[in-house]
Amino acid sequence: MEAYPVELKEVPRPLVAALGPKDLQARVLPVLRSINEEFVPQLQIKSLSFDHRFVFPIKKDKSTSLSPPPSKGIWKTDWLKKHHEVLPSVVLLLYAFEPRLATRDWAIQETVIRDEVEDLRRMLSGRDVKILLVLVQLLDDAATTTASPSSSMVNVPSSDDRLQSLRKRAELDAKSVWLLKDIVSRTHPTLIKLEAAIRMNAIEYYKAQAKRVKKAKNPSKLMAARHSFKVAHYYEFRQHMSKMVLHYEAAYKSLLHMAVSSSSVEVQTQVRAVAEFVHFKLVYHALLTNRQLKTAVDQLHRHMASPVSQIPPNDDICMHWGYMSRQYHVFGQLMVEAQRRGGLPPPPTAAAANPIDSDLYKEVYLYFSVAAKYATRRRQAAAKAGLSYDPNQPPAATSPPPISPSMYLGMANQSVAETSIPHAALAIHLLTQALHHVTDDVAHHRHRLKHRLGLRLALEHLANREYSVARQHLQLASTVYIQERWYGLVSEILGHLVTCARHERDTAAFLELSMQLLSPKLEPYVSARFRDTVHANLFVAFDHVTSSQMTLPDLSLDDDDGRRRLTASLISVAIHCTNSALVATFESGLPVDVAFYTLGFVFTQDGGAPCVVELHHETTADLLLSPHIPRTFQVPVTPFSGGVACQQVRFGLRNRHHVSWTWTLAGPFAAQPRHRLVRRNSLLPEINGRVPGMGQGAGSPSFQRQNLRHGTDPYLVHEVDKATVDLVSTSPVLVHGVTCLEFVLHAPSTDHVHHPRCAVNIDDQSSVTVLSPVSQDQLISPQLAQSDQQFQVVMTCHSPGPVLLSVHVAYETTRGEYVQLDIPFTVHAVLPVTLSTAKTDGVATVNGSGFMLVAHVKAAVAPLRIHKLALKHVTPYATIVQSGGNNDDEECATPFLGAGDAHSLVLHVTPREVT
């Protein structure tokens, strides 16, 4: 609420201006204020000098107000200040009343009072401001009776006579002139009546002002919003809550209609600013006056979903995120104030049927957390636009340019320089507030929420270049998420810790954190390029270590379940010992080749002292370990009697400055290499920009309305309508033949297929060769919903048997979702038709008449239908030899061979060309 003017944040109180001598004001005004504390509305009685009457705003001339020029703005910026601090509802004119004054002196004082009243009437003409003349009598009337007859007080008129004369000359009624004689006691009836008269006149003034606000017969939305806001504020002066909320609602609806109907950037900016003020008033009175949380939350939902809370037309994304953050920040501050005043009571019986959607909305931390989320987005948008705030830059260089005053609220010249706003500091303040209320209000079993907020706080400290503070929070978050095995977050945290260590020039921490980031457990969550960069920076930093006295991290590669060390399994080792040699197999999990200086083995015999055997790069060809490639070393050892076991393996590194760094891996070691998991599927959901739901993981309401149901909990699962692939070809695949398989891609019934690609994977590539598609990622044509598309796969089989092939299809939906399909198909490869003759070795011969006699035709495993016999340069025809000797040309045209059937054919060959 710091960005709002004071007049908007405070409850308006009727302004009463007191003019007169300071000594009289000091005697009267404190008593009136103390009496007014027990009544509503409370008055704002300001002590002013006589000269202040000249700064009262003058009422505009009626001749000019009858046809005002077209307004260029919705709301004037000084309207609230004018009615809160400048324009009074009642004017108190204080004067000392001396009953001992001579007649001539009293006549002079009457003239002065009359002139003063006339000046005030002239200044406040047309505003219905009540002027009350308060005469303070310091001496009692009894003092005049004790005077001697020879004094000048003989024949002095009484106080009543002088008051009556003063009312006539000043043209004031009896209720406008007050005489105070005893101002010591606050229980004096005259003082109580004076306070009541002041309060009632102030109420009548604002009541009259609400009626005097001009409302056109067919007002525009601009005039309707202005009229409703003015009337609502006048009702707020009177503490008339029902009428006030009604008119604020009318003003807000008019502003929403303007936001939808107008496309002007200037109008949109003004609507946005005025709607924010009206929204604040609605939420303020819902929480602090009416104490209705549901009403306030519903208004917040409506405001954040309205057009005034969307990205502005001028594409000022930084100001938009600042606007969104300010709405939730102000709501959280109002929630804190409501709790400070005694909390929010349960809803009445009438509203029990429509309760608040979730008790989560009662948590104050939620609003500060969402405000911090939008503050973070503002910082990121400013960084993307090159408008980041530099905390190390002197304030003079980042001071915003002078802002010219604007007549209307929300004008463009009220924008601020983005580079002068400490974005990260604002987010840190909001997250600190959120953590404070989580600590106070949330039980221990929701500790995950605290850790998530702590991680966001660490990232903001990092953005604010507070590396030491950020490093402490990141270390705590890393420990927690390693224990819970949230390796996706751990990889992100370790990357930030490496950045902190680099900026703090902590080489030892940089080396240790880089090794943790290269852990095989984090490999599925870290890109290959980033792993290569981390590995290169690791050894560059180690190569620059010049002092052997620097304490390098004691890097242990042991897999300790209690600590869940990330550096475990960076290098897997399998060792078995023989009588004369120690055979060790190593497999590196690092992304790049690593050349060690020494390899040391510490082994012991039963009951003996440990023995160390080392391999040096001078004696061994090389001690290079390539990523994911096992390598075996044989170390000759002296034969031992009894059992020999390897206790530890030491990997030694040395840089160009002869500084050593040792990695240790403790046993026991397996005799065979362990199976390495090449690929891991990440189970960590995306939680970037989400508000944790009180320890329920990454889910949160994020101010999205949910319909809660009683009884069984319904789970709504949105299943995506995916495309399907069918195999059209059903004929078998011939061995050593080129076969074309027809597939059909069926598009979904409710979505389109964009940028589809297909690829074919063969289980046994040695027996099958895919000729088409040539590339493993072939682009096919896009499809509309409920449409089909055919594509072909050409293949050649080298051996009979079943062939398992997988068709991979990937495409994008209309909403941008990436869909992948893997459909397995099984086809059978069979041998082609075999021909055998009655001749020797089954070789068909052609006789002199041009006939080739084929004794039998044996079909393959699957049925075969002879459709056509075609040979080059010949014209063949076949005849089935029936058992009765009859030849039927129609039957032989389409003979059918079943599986395993055999038939006799006569093939008549007639040469086309005579040679």
TrEMBL record:
Span of domain Trafficking protein particle complex subunit: 270-519
Give the domain of life.
Eukaryota
Where would you find the membrane-spanning parts of this chain?
Answer: none
Q: Which Pfam families match?
A: Foie-gras_1 (PF11817)
Indicate what this protein is called per its UniProt record: Trafficking protein particle complex subunit 11 domain-containing protein
